[in-house]
Amino acid sequence: MLGGYCGKILRINLTNREVKEERLPEEYLRKYLGGSGIGARLLYDMTDENTDPLGPENPLIYMTGPFAGTSVPTSGRHQIVAKSPLTGIYGEGDVGGTWGAGLKKCGYDGIVIEGQSQEPVYIVVEEGKASILDAGFLWGKDTYEADEILKETHGKNISVSCIGPAGEKLVRLASIMHDGKDGRAVGRTGLGAVMGSKKLKAVVVSGNLPVRVIDEAKLKDSIKEISPTIVKNTNAIKQHGTAAGVIGTEAIGDFPLKNWSYATWDKIENVSGQRMTQTILTGRYFCGSCIIGCGREVEVKEGPFAMKGAGPEYETIGTLGGLCLVDNLEAIAHGAELCNRYGIDTISTGSVIGFAMELYEKGIIDKDDTGGIELTWGNAYAMVEMIHRIGKKEGIGDLLGNGVREVARQMGGRAQEYAIHVKGLEFPAHDPRAFNSLALGYATANRGACHLQGASYFFEKTATMPELGIPEPKERHRADDQGEFQKNTQDLMCLMDSLKLCKFTLYGGVKTAHMREWIRYVVGWDISFEELMAIGERIFNLKRMYNVKCGISRKDDTLPPRILTQPGKEGETKHNLPHFGRMLNEYYIARGWDDDGIPTQETLERLGLTW
Amino acid sequence: MIVKFSAPFFEQLGVKKDTIKLEEEVSLHHLLALLADMYPYLADIVKADKIGEGYRFNLMCVKNGRIMNLTDTVNDDDTVEIIPPIMGG
């Protein structure tokens, strides 16, 4: 019997209210590992280009990894996968918190939720069973309220995954939130709207079953050896949160400003993690099995932006702050809390508000469109009001909640020039002009513009991975070596999203050798480096093949003209991207794809993706 | 050469930039050792790691837009900016 895995998932059909268990064969587990890998395979098998993301045929897939519920550092994570209503292609999100380990302790590796309920419902998973319950009393509640009510109903030892009013109203930027005021989000690709389309308010897990570990003693020794390095190397994140890097990113032209138009910002210190520590920080938050502690607890005690709960992360500061030129940290914290409560992605929300501010500046929209709001750069009150309108799907928020691609399509004309996205997903808060590899990563990530599906820039600032040819951080503006480098880091991230390890462990010195050790000690498999990387490559290509089914090809693997043609920061770091087409060609060759970006038959056969 | 200190370093050090006279080209490793001797606050940071490659987890040095490795060199005509580590997000 394997360790780590339960070897079974729940299939829950909300149309006919059927709940059944399904075995996961060992061969399947070894081929896709868990999390993102198994989620991708299930989605590939269940849906195609004709699937309506908001229809009953689109499943909502929760998957853990083999380490969930063990002491492996940062392993209490899970993945949610579905066809995205924002992009129309492969959608997924990775999240920390306590829910993943909670599901594993109920005796399940994952849940596949199919169909649609007529009335609001929520699911309660306990040890070896699941129930579908009426959620009438929860419908309309924000995510913090829903978490509190469910804990009053089912006890404090549960973990809650839920949507807010935005998901209920099918806002395409809707997130799925976890752990109440701790605000752990599956933010990207609009999966909260998929949950809302099923009239599913929440999934509660409550269990305490042990997770089997094959060699507990060796696992303990391995973790004991690496943990001090993880703690030491990530001290800046523990001290100041993910926003520790705000000042540095601005200094090197990485921080996004004014809807990605050329600018530097003399207000950057006002929104830094260090400033947060000095002003509104009240505590720190650790996900399950985490020894890093990037989470912030903050409080704005009074004034128009009063709030108390999860503090804004780097990405939120970059989007609600930088892209909108809002330098008021209290307003950003308040905006972040509103996004969490409504259940909308802070990255896409800040991006679409910054985009709307540029439309307002250029005269493409005016006060008649905004409902009388002066949507000017730096207007913190306007930023907050736009969040309300998107969350409630009111006024211009009804339009903005569809994301920048759709807003630009409906506006037409010059609005297209200012819409910054790839494949319909808004950019996260890192500028590809600051790291050449990010340009390739954003253009080819399977869920659209994403910094974490390749995380190549980790290896251009601090992280190393000698076994992937990265003995020291690489130079960020180099033009060569990008194709193979991007392929390797993307495959590695597929592994981490499937094993369900936090990517910050890469800063902490975690290498593939540690992953192999933990697989051996937890699951009982001896996996070579070559096999491990082949699994990552298989998962990446599987997602690509899903997107190919949905019509994705070379024409979509690109960046907006503003990013490709306008220089980055002035001064010492002024920089243009190298020839993007050349980088893309090298990448396709490294991937074993044809000139149009389609995996060749030979590649698919090599990876075991023909069936 | 000129060394610029970004926030939060300048708040701790009391200066936004400093000039150091270099007689010859030196490694970043050497420069950090010089700075550690000049500024006790920086000494606490860089010497905690004994100025190993892990220095990037505590601060970063940027020259002409390049995030520097310890073996990279600087000379008297250069400007190096010292910024907080870039992690997270």
Summed up:
With 611 residues, chain A is α+β, with helices and mostly antiparallel strands. Chain A has 24 helices and 17 strands. Chain A has a 6-stranded mixed sheet. A 6-stranded mixed sheet of chain A has the order 8-7-12-9-10-11. Chain A has a 3-stranded antiparallel sheet with strand order 13-14-15.
- Pairing-aware structural class of the strands and helices of chain A? alpha+beta
Task: Count up the helices of chain B.
Answer: 3
- Poorly predicted runs of 5 or more residues of chain B: none
The tally of strands of chain A reads 17
**Which percent band covers the strand fraction of chain A?**
5-15%
Q: What is the helix content of chain A? A: 25-40%
Low-confidence stretches of chain A: none
Shape of chain A: globular
Total E-strand runs of chain B: 7
Rg measurement of chain A, Å: 22 Å
What's the order of the H and E elements of chain B?
EHEEHHEEEE
Task: Please give the radius of gyration of chain B in angstroms.
Answer: 12 Å
Structural class of chain B: alpha+beta
Largest interface: A-B, 46 and 24 residues
The rounded distance between the terminal residues' Cα atoms of chain A is: 27 Å
Major sheet strand order of chain B: 2-1-7-4-5
Oligomeric state of the chains? heterodimer
Characterization of this structure:
The complex is a heterodimer of chains A (611) and B (89). Chain A has 24 helices and 17 strands. Chain A has 611 residues and is α+β, with helices and mostly antiparallel strands. In chain A, strands 2-1-6-3-4-5 form a six-stranded mixed beta sheet. A six-stranded mixed beta sheet of chain A has the order 8-7-12-9-10-11. In chain A, a hairpin with a 6-residue loop joins strand 14 and strand 15. In chain A, helix 2 crosses helix 19 and helix 18 crosses helix 19. The model of chain A has no long low-confidence stretch (mean pLDDT 96). With 89 residues, chain B is α+β, with helices and mostly antiparallel strands. Helices cover 28% and strands 25% of the residues of chain B. Chains A and B meet through helix 8, helix 9 and helix 11 of A and strand 5 and strand 7 of B.
